[in-house]
Amino acid sequence: MHASVGDQLVQHGRVVGQHDKVGEIVEVMGREGNPPYRVRFQDGHEGVCSPGPDTEIRHRETSGR
């Protein structure tokens, strides 16, 4: 899993009815885009995450094409 600052980290709900938790990656602490990541979630909470199999990275769109 590789990410950059500004990408979104999405933790999918594990049980029926549980919503996805979405946050912005504010720091990549691993080498070459690898975890762990410091993530700021929509509720303002920040935490260090090492994503598991229920997580996806949504890469930010880059302009300059």
UniProtKB/TrEMBL annotation:
Residues 1-57 form the DUF1918 domain. Pfam families: DUF1918 (PF08940). Residues 55-65 have a biased composition (Basic and acidic residues). Residues 36-65 are annotated as: Disordered. InterPro entries: DUF1918. This is DUF1918 domain-containing protein. It comes from Streptomyces cadmiisoli.
